[in-house]
Structure prediction request, 327 residues.
Amino acid sequence: MPQKVIIDCDPGIDDSLAIMLALSMPEEIEVVGITVAAGNAPVEMGYGNALKVLKFMGRLDVPVFMGADRPLKRDFVNALDTHGSDGLGESFLPQVPEEEYERQEMNAVQFMQETLQREPVSVIALGPMTNLAMLIEKAPSSFGKIQEIVSMGGTFRSHGNCSPVAEYNYWCDPDAAALVYGEMDRLGRKIHMVGLDVTRRIVLTPDLLDYMKRLDPHTGAFTQKITKFYFDFHWQWEHLIGCVINDPLAVAYFACRDLCKGFESYVQIETKGISLGQSIVDSMNFYRHAPNAIVLTEVDTIRFFELFFTRLLRMEEKPDLLPVLCR
Ligand code: BDR
Ligand code: CA
Prediction:
């Protein structure tokens, strides 16, 4: 039986690849809805991008819900410098016409609350956690019913990607991330932290992209269209040939737990000062505090790409060149 999931996101180039992957794993994952928050792109733009990806996947039946248009307390800082002026790598895909999908009346938080009152679902959080934090504020008992939270965010040993110590999703809305980690602590539960330590190992290189295009020109061309800007950004800022696709790893890990390894720890999120948004991982147990997180630190990169290729490109067999092309 597939597990029911809400994808909470800010599409976003890598969010889009993550949505595509999740929809390509029907045996493991049933996407009951996509909720969008302000993050990489302003929320209306992210909402439109989610629809564009669903249209490409032929899945406009999946409902999309507009969520928070800014962080809980801080000013909103988008990441269009990384994701392009349209939030989708300057692919400038046409907006999905209104008559092609059902516009939802409920907002993201109402949808989460209503769904959780009805049935247990998990949340794969791929953007700033503002929607989840608002759910805690509005309906804490519903939040408590979330089966599992897998969050792409934070960092343990790796450096940050928008300050020396902070990863974007937690840096963009540190108060939301702090609230979610705090609430998980209060509930005695653990969030799965798929942070930069592992996602930096997931690099879509030109060779891998070429391979994708050879194996499936349609999906390969779409992936190239939305990642070209991201490739250029990574070259300019990180001197990397390729792009780090963070968010699909959270989806892959949700379905295949042995893809990543890590350890349990107490984690707090800094909400002020020069360490704003940093995930403080008490790996040495200084605080003698029960863990509220599973912090992932190791990933099997080849297996990730095996999964990514076989599912996204609907292949029967593992693509044989991956062990050569992955680095
Ligand atoms: C995260 O921030 C965004 O740029 C990506 O979509 C990903 O969710 C990486 O720090
Ligand atoms: Ca994201």
